[in-house]
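[Meeting: bench + compute handoff]

Bench side (C.D.) handed over the final construct sequence. Compute side (W.E.) agreed to return the predicted structure before the next meeting so the bench team could plan truncations. Sequence as handed over:
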Amino acid sequence: MKKPPFIKLTFAPLQFYMLPPLFFILSICLAPSTTALGNETDHSALLAIKSRLVAHDAGVFRSWNHSLHHCSWNGVTCERKYNRVIQLNLSSRGLVGTISPFIGNLSFLKNLTLYNNSLVGHIPPEIGRLFRLQSLLLFNNTISGEIPSNLSACYNLQRLSIGFNKLEGKLPPELRALSKLKFLGLHFNNLVGPLFEIIANITSLEGISAAGNYFMGHIPTNIGKMRNLNLFMIDGNEISGTIPTSILNCSLLTTLEVSYNKLHGELPPNIGLKLPNLVNLHIYSNQFSGTFPNSILNLTSNESIILGANNFVGIVPHDFGRLQNLTWLILEYNHFEGDINLIGSLVNCTKLRVLGSG
């Protein structure tokens, strides 16, 4: 009789079969301790942050004591599952002091809001460890130094508002990695160097506020790819070149403020048709030339038209009465022809507060 074929059976070691249950048991046992460790880290970090700050109002930190869980402290918000700190909001509390580097230990932090205080010192580079951070609002303080390049590691950042401080130096080129950024507020610091070389490809931007610095360079043609842009404020810099016609692709634009720069060329004649939502048009004290774009009179929601101190020529239309929301109209210091006494055409502009047409 023919023997059946020999079948070799192999058995894995017993410990192999024990691994899944073992992992399951370990995960159950370790989860509470991991959560407790995270809570202690947050607790210690908050106390370290407090140690660098003095509040004019003693009530700001009254709840920051060991009798309350830190998730109940004033200005602190935690997520529910693990009680990890996701928001620290101490804005407008009269705080004096510096931002502790221990801020980088709040690893679940999504929103850091410290604006409108009297903070000094530098932006701690440890903030770059907060990869969950979505909003960093430090404006209206007295923070100095340079912008840390490793803020680029906060790749979920959507709002970066650090205006009205004493920041200096160049905008770190690494910030071009912030592909989710929606608002960039750099206004009224002492920043220098290129601006648009860094941010030109961040097409998610909805607001750019960089007025009152020393930025240089040109407005790039690919600004038209920022289809959600509604706020563009670069007044008081050293930006040169022209306003590219591609900006007309930014049809949601409500504020276009480029006064006190070195821009030249003509305004697109159809600017009032392509940018129907434009409320504020400020181009004062540049070197713009050409004629007044009559399409501006289609902007019936417009509140301010400031075209003064340029090289415009030609006839100024007398149909401003259609702009019934107009509060500012500045056309002075140009080379317009004929009579630009607009009083008669402004009788319907009942909200008008400032007129400069000399």
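W.E. noted at the follow-up: The CA atoms of residues 240 and 262 lie 5 Å apart. C.D. will use this when planning the next construct.
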